[in-house]
Amino acid sequence: MTAYINISLQGTVYFITRGSTEDDGMVRLYSSKLVMLMNLYSTFDVLYSQLSGEWHHQDDVVNPFLDRRRVHAIFCDSTRSIPLSLRRQRSITISDFEHYEPPATPGHTLQSIFPPPYWKMRRKDLDLQCLERHKAFVGRVLADLAFQWRHILCGRYNNSTFRRLACAIIRIVTLDFEVEEVTLSRRGIGGFLVWMNNLPEWGPFSGSIVRIGGASIVICQHIPHAITLIQKDFGKRVLTTLDHNLCETFPKTFTYLILSVQETILYRINKESRRYTKCERLLDDTHPPSYEAIELLLEAIQASAFMTPIHRLPVELQDMILDRVSAGPIESARVGCVLNAGSEFTWKCGDRNIEREEGRRNRTEWSPVESHILFGNCSSVIAYK
Questions:
Q1: What highest taxon heads this organism's lineage (predicted)?
Q2: What is the b/e burial string over 320-343, where b = at least 16 CB atoms within 10 angstroms of the residue's CB?
């Protein structure tokens, strides 16, 4: 088995993995480092200096108990399974550990903050064909984002991890990502693209409000604070309108999309009133995003597609052109959504279903093209074959 050690020291998380063949042997090894030394040194000083391996800096701690994959044992503080006093007295064994009941994750909060009546958004300029095209592609990618990072989404995470997850959602729905294709043979190195000790590594957005199309996306875990951000932003935009005498051209009503990762809600505000949609489940626990949440996101950020010469061609010819954009089908589908061209993506390549790739497997010259989704230079750990 593999042991994961997280030590939080003054806001910084130090992380190391160690392999071991037996649970009891692993526990004895680590606990022996702390016996009789705990009175002289901190837990961090002892473990960092005496456990060989490569330590890493992280800015969040993954709670492995909430993941449905196999977890054996972990060193805990006095509020968990093993009291510090016992570790000072003797080496501990597996039999010393007590059954751990993880704290219940907080439930939905939006319903209580936004009571009925709810407003159903219907944009007059909504392109339904474009919406369906994006739902077919983006919906699957968001579901696979939820699957790959389920060990994070099923528990609690700090603001840094939250902002990275929110950034991933926005970049996927706006198709603002890169696709790296693997076409050559390679020898597999084993393991998974992501495991339950991993955290997102891509950078988050710098601000709390991101302008996309005619909507402003409010990135905030705590809904009451999101409302405060909306009211402040609305006040600033109204003042800007008055200061520049733009009352004739500026809209009287502003649209905001609140994104808490777990849920999303559309919020419209003007000087006289506010209106909002029903909250919809997005990335919550291990469930895929709801159909309604995906539709709400895509309707809010939809922009008019620009016309190109390809739009004058029959759909069959558009498909032929898009097939030559890349070696694999994922980048072709992304470009088709960006251009609003070609047929709706069916997640098939010829007669073969496109599958999610979860490991680092062997590749031969006959293997399907692997398509890895990147945010900048960082892997999202979402891949297809």
A1: Eukaryota
A2: ebbeebbebbbbbbbbbbebbbbe
